[in-house]
Amino acid sequence: MTGRSADGDSARALTTVLRGAAAVMVDGQTVTTGDVVIDSATISKADDVAVTGVAADVVDVTGCIVTPGLVNAHHHFLQSAFRTLPGTRFVPMAQWLTTMAGAYAAAHTDPELTGLAASVGLAESLLNGVTTVADHHLTWPAGVDPVAMATATAQAGRTLGARVAFVRGTARDDPQAAADSVSAIVEALLLDNRSGDVGAGVTDDGMLQIAVGPSGVHADGPETFAALAKVAAEYGLRRRTQANEQVDVEIAAQRYGRRPIELLDEWGWLAPDVTIAHLCEVTDDEIALIADSGATATHAPGCDVPMGWGVAPVARLLGRGISVGLGTSGGGSNDAGHLLADARLAMQVSGLVGEPVSATALLAMATAGSAAGLGRSELGHLRVGAAADLCVWDVSDVHDAGVADPVAGLLWASPGRRPRDVMVAGRWVVRDGRLVTADSREFAARLRAALAARVD
Predict the structure, then answer these.
(1) For 131, which of 100, 207, 252, 389 could close a Cys bridge (C-beta 3.0–4.6 Å)?
(2) C-alpha distances in angstroms, 187 versus 102, 198, 405?
(3) 23-33 in b/e burial notation, b at 16+ Cβ within 10 A?
(4) Span 199-241, pLDDT tens digits
């Protein structure tokens, strides 16, 4: 029964039992052994007691660690089509933004390309153990239907069986047009998929969430922040933005004579429903503002560190009680959507800007921390009642031999590891390291062909 169910390879069973794990990371504070039991799409048990006398699909996870599915709090799927572009490595952020914008225009970004890039980004995410991804989409070409753009990404998630939080972002867009498009996206993708009010902007099955997110004070003014805040309040949507990256600090000083966090505070964008990505080089006073507001944060070291744009002081943020998640950012700066690898990087560089952050704390950030920023209390843990999103990591080979703490070893040992199996909402989407919901190589081939046909 190594890696397979006792009664076949069906994608979903009424009751599934994972048996024999070396360790089960229930959450950031609790590690157990014993059975993990999934009833339909939720966790019904995860503790040290074995289950007996239950008719179930039993999966042998001997030599493996079971964790919650990872939650990527900050991605830009479109950039999966634009990795390692010439002129985008080790350059100032202002230069990088200009080069990326030119690439989007040259490729004639539209719903087809958006959907292909999202499919590639989501397939990569699932293969790397990420079960929920927040896609901060910032590119909205004139004349292209924003509902069609959002629908392309939402459909990619449905096809692959991944959870998607689609963030209607802005970058110098007309404020009212952007707000109007949020209404249209919600009415097209959420209201038709819910039995009642929109609430937190999540479909009834929890597979799609809509949020709003200006790129940052470097690109959007107070009018845009106000317009998106208004429409978010109308529909009960979460708010997300970026702050304190290199260009953000420079332009805020030039244009407003202020720092980004001060502006977000003045513009009503420090609040419990707001998540702020990046937060490089924030001061103690700025951290206090964020903490007092109840806003959450997202660390994106795989983008900011290799590009030389800064390092968020994670220990200081956590020390003030701020909930911190983890994100990869996009393929234009972090060329891999591998959240576990970025957790390892975050752990390794944390001591350069403050107290070191442990592997356990980083795993908690990559699961429950990210989920908190989305307002999704059912994600990021394996406590009873949680959504059945989980990963099975094989730690039985030489890469993990001699590891004293197998959970910490997920980060310290075997860089770039991928899970054996991945489940989302009680459905297996990866088995034995391969997607079962789609052909990942087909997605790669289709994206390559589309780019070749579009770009000279």
Answers:
(1) 389
(2) 32, 9, 48
(3) bbbbbbeebbe
(4) 569 998 999 999 999 999 999 999 999 999 999 999 999 999 9
For tokens 């989409």, the residue is 137
Task: Return the pLDDT at 14.
Answer: 74
Judge contact between 345 and 389, C-beta under 8 A: no
pLDDT for res 216:
96
Q: Is residue 451 within 8 Å of 116, Cβ to Cβ?
A: no
Structure tokens at 256: 């407003």
Mean pLDDT of 107-120: 97
Q: Reply yes or no on whether the pLDDT at 69 is more than 70.
A: yes
Give the tens place of pLDDT for each residue, 252-280.
999 999 999 999 999 999 999 999 999 99
Q: What angle do CA 424, 425, 431 make, to 5 degrees?
A: 35
| pTM score of the predicted model | 0.95
CATH 2.30.40.10 in the chain, residue ranges: 15-68+380-435
**Superfamily (CATH H level) for 15-68+380-435:** Urease, subunit C, domain 1 (2.30.40.10)
What is d(CA 15, CA 21) in angstroms, rounded to the nearest whole number? 18
| pLDDT over 70 at 33, yes or no | yes
3-state SS class at 135: strand
Six-digit token string for 176: 């009212």
- What is the second-level CATH architecture of the domain 70-373? Alpha-Beta Barrel (3.20)
Alpha carbons 337 and 446: distance in angstroms, whole number? 19
The two counts, helices (H) then strands (E), for the chain are 15, 19
Handedness of CA 280, 285, 287, 290 (dihedral sign): negative
Q: Tell me, what's the pLDDT at 198?
A: 41
| DSSP secondary structure string for all residues of 62-113 | TTEEEEEPEEEEEE-GGGGGS-S-TT-SS--HHHHHHHHHHHHHHTT--HHH
Do 116 and 446 form a contact (C-beta atoms < 8 A)?
Answer: yes
Q: What percent of the chain has pLDDT over 90?
A: 85
